[in-house]
Amino acid sequence: MTPDLMEAGTQLRQAHEQRVNNVGGSGGDASYGRVARAGVPEFAQGVALYVDDITVSFDGFRALNALSLTINVGELRCIIGPNGAGKTTMMDVITGKTRPDKGKVFFGSNIDLLRLRENDIAQIGIGRKFQKPTVYEELSVFENLELALKADRRVRASVFSRLTGAQLDRIGEILALIHLKDAAQRTAGLLSHGQKQWLEIGMLLMQDPKLLLLDEPVAGMTDEETERTAELFLSLEGRHSLVVVEHDMKFVDQLTEGRKKVTVLHEGSVLAEGLLADVQANDKVVEVYLGR
Ligand SMILES: Nc1ncnc2c1ncn2[C@@H]1O[C@H](COP(=O)(O)OP(=O)(O)OP(=O)(O)O)[C@@H](O)[C@H]1O
Questions:
Q1: Residues near ligand 1 (Cβ within 6 A)
Q2: Are strands 47-58 and 102-107 parallel, antiparallel or unpaired?
Q3: What is the CA radius of gyration of the chain?
Q4: Using DSSP, how many helices (H) and how many strands (E) does the chain show?
Q5: If DSSP codes are grouped into helix, strand and coil, which group holds residue 237?
Q6: pLDDT in tens, 278-290
Q7: Is the overall model pTM greater than 0.90, yes or no?
Q8: What are the extents of the domains in the chain?
C-alpha cells in the first residue's frame, strides 16, 4: 500500500468513527492536490529503471554492494537470490525508503529517484507490493479500489466525492483483470489470501503505475492462484514494467516463458543474469542458491 493510500484510508476511517460517535458534522473533505508534482518520467530511450553502482551499508555491513541493473520499458524481470541477498533493500532504495551511500537510481531517463521523497515516488508511477497483503479488511473489494483511485493525487478527488462514469468503468476493468468481478461487494477481510493479494495489486493498478515492484507475490498462494497470478502479470507486461522478486522457481519459469532474462542477486550484487535455464545451470548460482 502506498503512503498516500494509507492517508486516504485513515481519513475514511476517521470519518466513519466521527459518524459513529456523532461528533460534529463538517466532515473532512480533504483534497489530494496539495503537493507539487515531482516530474514526468521520460521513457523515449526505452529504459524504465536505471540502477547504477548502488551501495547500502548498515553499520558497516554492505546489504547492497555496487549493485547495477537496468529494467526496460514494458519488461517483466524476475529477481531471484538467497535470503539476505539484498532484494528487499534494493526495492527500499528504489522507493525512497532507504538512502544509499552511493550510486544512481533513475526512473526513465530524467527522474533522479534519490532526490525524491517516498510519497512523491509513489505518485510519479512506481507502485510497490509488499509480501503481506495490506488491504482495508473492513471495506468491500469495490471500496478498496475506489479508495485507491481517490488516493491518486492526479485524480484530485476527495474521499467523499462521487465516482464519474469513467472511474466506474476503470474499477470494473480492474475487477475483471484481478478475477474479483463476482466478489466486488464482498468484505475484503473475507477473501482468500490469494484474492487479497490480487486486490492489493488491483489497488496499485488503479493508479496506473509505469513500474510495479512485487515482493514474493505468490508466497502462500495455492497452485491455482499462483497460475492465475502468472497470467495476470503476463497480461500487464508491455503496458507496465514489472520487477518480481520471487523464490518460487515454477512461477518464475511461467513468467519468463523460456525467453526472458532473470537476475540473480547475491551479497548485494548481481551474481548472474540470463535465461532461467542458463542461470539454473550456472555453477556459482547453484552453489549459493539453487543447489541448497
Ligand atoms: N535495517 C537494517 N539494518 C541492518 N541490517 C539490515 C537492515 N535491512 C537489511 N539488513 C541486512 O541486509 C541484508 C540484505 O537484506 P534484504 O532484506 O535486502 O535481503 P533479501 O534478499 O530481501 O532477503 P529475503 O529473501 O530473506 O527477503 C541482510 O543481511 C539483512 O539482515
A1: 58, 63, 81, 83-89
A2: antiparallel
A3: 20
A4: 10, 10
A5: strand
A6: 999 999 999 998 7
A7: no
A8: 1-22+138-206
